[in-house]
Each structure stands twice: as C-alpha cells, then as structure tokens.
Write the structure tokens for this entry.
Amino acid sequence: MSDLTMAEAIREGLKFLAAGVCMGIGAIGPGLGEGHIGAHAMDAIARQPELAGPIVGRMLLADAVAESTGLYSLVVALILLFVV
Amino acid sequence: MKVTLTRGDKIFLLIFFVVYAVVLIFEVPSVQLPEGIGERWIVDLIPSWGIMGRVNPMTVIMTWGIIVIVLGFTLPIARNFKVVPNRKQAFLEYILNYIYQSTQDMITQENLVRPVFSIAATLFMFIVVSNVLTAFPGVQIVPTSQGLKVSLFTDTWYAPTSDLNTNATYAVMVLILSHVFGIKAKGFKKWLKGWFEPTPLMFPLNLIGELAKPISHSLRLFGNIMGGGILVLIVSYLIKYAFLPVFLWGFFGVFVGIIQAMVFSLLAIAYISAQVEEG
C-alpha cells in the first residue's frame, strides 16, 4: 500500500467513496417502495385475513420487482470495487 | 409441533457447543478475510477470439451437476407416475401445480398454456436448485495471487446463477421466446403493428422498453445471489465465523434463493403474456 503515488491513492479512495455513495443513495428508492408495498399488504390482510396466503405471495413478488433498482446500484458498486 | 429432547440429545448439544466455543476462541486470531472475493476462475480456450473464447469452468461444471441433480430427482418420478403419489411425487406435483396455476392466471389462450408452463417450470427447477446450493458448504474455486485456491467445504457451493452469463442467457432466451409466441398468437402483421402503438412516435420507447427487459431480468437474479454471497463472506469474517454464518446461509440461500427463482419464472410468464395478449 505504501508505494502508491498521490494520484493512485486518490483514485483508490474515490473508488470506495463512489461505491459507498452509490449503494447508500441507491437503497433509498427500494426502501420506500418496499415500505409502501408492505404497508398496503398489511392493510389488505387486516381487511381480509383469510386471504393472507396469496397476499403474502404477491407481496414478495412485488418486493422483488421493487428492489431491482437497488440491485442495479449494487452491481454498479461491485463493478467499482472489483473491476474498475 | 412440539420438539422433545432426550437426555442424550441435551448432553450431545452441550458438548457440541462447548467444543464450538473452544475452537472459536483458538481460531479467532487466525481468521482472515478470504482472498479472491468477487473473482472468477477464467480459462482462455481460444485467445484469438478475445472475450468470446473465454470459459468459466466452474459455471460449466456446476451447470451440468445441477442438470444431473434435477434429472435424477424428476426422471424416476416421471417414469412410474402413480395415481396415488408417494412423498417425492406429491412434492413435485405441489410445485408444478403452483406454476401451472399462475400460468393459467396470466395466459388466456388455452393452447399456449402448456408450452409456457414447461418453459417456466424448467427455469424454476434449475434456478431453485442452483440457488439453494449456495446454502450448503461445498466446493468453490477462486483465483488468488498465488494461483487457484480450492476450498473444499470451507465455503458454499458455487452457484451458476451467481454468474451473469447464465442469467443473461436465460433472460435473452425468454425475450426471444416471448416474441416467437407473440408472432404465433397474433400473426406477424399484428405483432409488427404492436411496435408502433399507440403512435409511430412511440417506436423508440417501445424498443428501449423491450431491450431493458432482459437487462433487469438477469441483473435481478445476479445481484441477489452474487450480492448475498459477498455479503455473507464479509459479515462472516467480521464476526469471525461465530454462529451467525449458518443463519445467513439459510436466509440468503434458501429464503432469497427460492423467492428469486419464483420471481424469475413468474416474470418470464408475465413477459410472454404481455406479448401474447391482444392489446
């Protein structure tokens, strides 16, 4: 680690900073979206408890779709950490 | 369900935990972050072809292994199919019935339900076996600075779905199949007209919308499995492999793995149904 020039050190540091910022900001959207989905699924289950099974199944499916933007930022962060 | 422990079980568990704790205390100073996180063993078969001549041997081996596992489980059941099922057949029927029901819900043309069901069920069975393998300790080969490092049962099995090539192949296959089914169901003229709806101005957006489908489809599975694997490795290192990794493997391997396999096959059905249905 000690034989880095200044430019390389700055580049390395910015890489980690970029990965962190990318993951942190990218997690906001999926968090909000999954929160909405979970809240509405709870509402629906409270109204019709006998439909809890199908509702939970569809909630998980919608969750998986909502988190895809978060996974894009995860992939970008992984590329920043391991490839660039 | 009530779990009862006999006296022998309790003594066994106590000895197990004491040995675990003693080994843990002695091992903690020597635990290091495993080398080669996120690295792949890549072989250049035909160097002049560049990126097209490269092979990822672990993916190839594990893919064939999983094909053997799936066929070994399903073929004996399919060979002697009984009216009164035994346990294995009932398990398989339960899974396939669920996929068949969701296919019927989403696709209204009667003659297309069976082919779409076979595609979705095949994808589901391959992906679920490959994802759940990441919950068990197994063989993993990663490159390090001193050459290949073979970890025998000190890491989880290598999942072909944690390689983007596998997922992208299936996603592109689903995209092409969805258009083939669309042409079959609607006719070529109506399919071509579908690109220019509601107005011809929307053609670029329709094109981008179609091309974005395989990207999101494949990256979703890749991100979940690969990200989960890296997360488990790093968290396991941070707590020095004390007790938690088992539960992390269970969560990321079994729970996330089964949900993502379900999501992948259901989205495949949804993409095909979006092309097939009369708009």
